[in-house]
Amino acid sequence: MTKPTLFSALSFAALLAASGLVGSAPAQAASHGYGAIATEAGNDNAIGHATNYHTRKGAERAAVAACNKYTNGKNDCKVRVWFHAKRCAAYGANDKNFDYAFGNTKSQAERNLHGKFPEGQLVDSICND
């Protein structure tokens, strides 16, 4: 049986370090960012959404700005739902209420919304990449 040489042991250690299996403190899990949906109160035709932002605040600002483009200068859109990671959100409303749901896919989020808010109409659904 041969002993490992210093070169092969160092090469193996370098390979492990490069792969992230050993070395410095573990890196934070990869983030797929934040997403948000915004609408104008009483007008679900004014909708804005944002996906894959680095911060919740960034996603919310972008969604509100996108929505406000459709408010004829009122600029009164509000964030209705935000989400994080590789997830999807669905937002629904009726004349009196609104609600939202999450899922791992767009269709799952929409089904979850319909299950908890059957009297609502789907307004928007989006996913982070």
* Helix/strand structural class: alpha+beta
Average pLDDT level: 81
Please outline the major beta sheet: 3 strands, antiparallel
Strand content of the residues, in percent?
Answer: 25-35%
Task: Kindly provide the radius of gyration, computed on alpha-carbon positions and rounded to a whole number of angstroms.
Answer: 22 Å
Helix content class = 25-40%
Order of the strands making up the biggest sheet:
2-1-3
Q: DSSP helix count?
A: 3
Number of strands: 6
Can you tell me about this structure?
The protein has one domain. It is built from 3 helices and 6 strands, in the order αββαβββαβ. The chain is flat. With 129 residues, the chain is of the alpha+beta class. It has helices spanning 6-19, 56-68, 106-116; strands at residues 34-40, 43-53, 77-84, 88-93, 98-103, 121-127. It has a 3-stranded antiparallel β-sheet with strand order 2-1-3, covered by helices on one side. Strands 5-4-6 form a 3-stranded antiparallel β-sheet.
Short description:
With 129 residues, this protein is α+β, with helices and mostly antiparallel strands.
Task: Please render the helix and strand layout as text.
Layout: H1 6-19, E1 34-40, E2 43-53, H2 56-68, E3 77-84, E4 88-93, E5 98-103, H3 106-116, E6 121-127
Antiparallel strand pairs: 1-2, 1-3, 4-5, 4-6
Any descriptors?
flat, disordered N terminus, three-stranded antiparallel beta sheet, 129 residues, alpha+beta
